[in-house]
Amino acid sequence: MFRIPDFHKVEMTFEEAKKTISFNGDLLTGMEQLSDHWDQYATGKLDHLYEDDAHFFEHWESEVNAYNVVYATMQPLFV
């Protein structure tokens, strides 16, 4: 899950989150791509795109919130 600053937190339903994070209709692919993008940023490979974490979250606000909603909803299935 993403640790989203309060300023960038957005409430959404599971259905809204699925539509937001899905990539070409594939929910898992969308989540993996966003997670990979964050990992690249966090390891310094995308420093040229974002000034700081706040800038990243500003750009990906809807997607990171959707990721968290889907993750939280699906997590009990994997325990």
Summarize the topology.
Layout: H1 14-21, H2 27-42, H3 53-59, H4 61-74
Helix/strand order: HHHH
Distance between the terminal alpha carbons, to the nearest Å?
15 Å
Number of beta strands: 0
Radius of gyration of CA atoms, rounded to a whole number: 13 Å
- SS-based class: mainly alpha
By DSSP (H or I, 4+ residues per run), the number of helices equals: 4
Tell me the count of domains.
1
Query: What characteristic shape results from the CA principal axes?
Result: globular
The average pLDDT score comes to 95
Low-confidence stretches: none
The fraction of residues in strands falls at under 5%
Give helix % range: 55-70%
Major β-sheet annotation: none
Structure description:
Helix 1 (14-21) crosses helix 4 (61-74). It contains four helices and no strands. It has helices at residues 14-21, 27-42, 53-59, 61-74. The chain has one domain (12-71).
Index terms:
79 residues, mainly alpha, 4 helices, globular
Question: Quick summary of this structure?
Answer:
This protein is mostly helical and 79 residues long. Helix content is 57%, strand content 0%.
